[in-house]
Amino acid sequence: MSAETVKQEIRSLLKERNAILLAHNYMRDEVQEIADITGDSLALSIEAARATADVIVFCGVHFMAESASILAPAKTVLLPRLDAGCPMADMVTVEGLRELKAQHPGVPVVTYVNSSAAVKAESDICCTSANAQKVVNSLPEPEIIFVPDRNLGRYVARFSPKTFHFWEGYCPTHERLTVDTVRRLKGEHPDALFICHPECNPAVLELADHVCSTSGMYDYCHKSTVRRFIIGTEAGILYRLRQENPDKEFILASPALICPNMKLTSLEDIKAALETMAPVVKVPEEIRVPAKRALDRMLAIPRD
Ligand code: 13P
Ligand code: SF4
Q1: Ligand 1 centroid to 214 CA: how many Å?
Q2: Number of domains into which the chain is organized
Q3: Closest-lying ligand to the alpha carbon of 172?
Q4: What's the whole-number mean pLDDT along residues 40-51?
Q5: Ligand 2 in reach of 40 Cβ (< 6 A)
Q6: Does residue 293 share a domain with residue 148?
Q7: Are 151 and 276 in a shared domain?
Q8: pTM, two decimal places
Q9: Could you read off the pLDDT of 84-104 as tens digits, one per residue?
Q10: Is 127 strand, coil or helix?
Q11: 42 pLDDT higher than 90
Q12: Cα(171) to centroid(ligand 2), Å
């Protein structure tokens, strides 16, 4: 079956099931092409919460589908590849977080959305890479426990007078970007701006002209009068950057910036999920309710 035929079948299945297809900015090009909405973790959570469809086909990784299930419990959330996980999310466990909380009693826990529902349920408030700064500033306490991303946490801490207690988790994909690679590329393209995601390691972030979430990159590159950019995040971001800015050049900072989990979902997987209405991601109520509290508290913070 040709890719075009599969796409057509997906479109008609989406209609038949009253389903909406959400895709993260790192998905394969052909998945982004057929999505109803593409976005970063924050935008997709908001879309999941406000969707009127009965079914959400979540093309992303497991924690994102869990967030959709937490925010929209009456809807069926399909994750076409149940094996699409996030190694960073898996680095923090409920037991580990409880131990850290016990070491710092009364200190609020800020949890990056790249975490399991069970870990969110143990947290005071969630954040994404787009709003981490605002979330930290919204808390009156002078100390913060920040999990699981040590790089995002340390980046946010640079702009805050608070005392941070970090979890030493990281994204294996973003960690692969090295200072040497960025320096070499900047030398080869002195007119280019280097834009990167806060999941990169602190030494790489030091070299950045701008640090932002995936959706922040679309805004920034579109508005900028500069014509060439070195991009320090997962390769999937290039699809829309190039589409929306045909007069600009985007250079991926390293060929190693590919998240294997984000690349798992194929058109065939999406079609099969809609045909069989599986795999479903459903968060049990005893975890969903406290996890929703942490997500809602984040969503109550006004966006720019
Ligand atoms: P965003 O929050 O920018 O979408 O990033 C999610 C993610 O998984 C980055 O690796
Ligand atoms: Fe997780 Fe990194 Fe992949 Fe994002 S890019 S899903 S943080 S492993």
Answers
A1: 6
A2: 3
A3: 2
A4: 85
A5: no
A6: yes
A7: no
A8: 0.96
A9: 999 999 999 999 999 999 999
A10: strand
A11: no
A12: 6
Q: Which structural domain, as residue segments, surrounds residue 145?
A: 88-171+287-299
Give the number of other Cβ atoms within 10 Å of residue 106's Cβ: 7
Alpha helices in the chain (DSSP H): 3-16, 29-34, 41-50, 62-71, 87-90, 94-103, 117-121, 132-138, 150-157, 172-175, 179-188, 202-206, 214-223, 238-244, 267-276, 285-299
**54 shares a domain with 27:** yes
pLDDT digits 0-9 by tens, 208-267: 999 999 989 999 999 999 999 999 999 999 999 999 999 999 999 999 999 999 999 999
CATH of the domain at 31: 3.40.50.10800
Q: Residue 245's pLDDT is what?
A: 98
38 and 70 share one domain = yes
Pocket lined around ligand 1, Cβ cut-off 6 Å:
25, 40-41, 114, 128-129, 171, 199, 213-214
* 101 and 160 inside one domain: yes
Peptide bond just before 279 cis, omega within 30 deg: yes
Please report the pLDDT score of residue 64 as a whole number: 96
> Does 190 reside within a domain?
yes
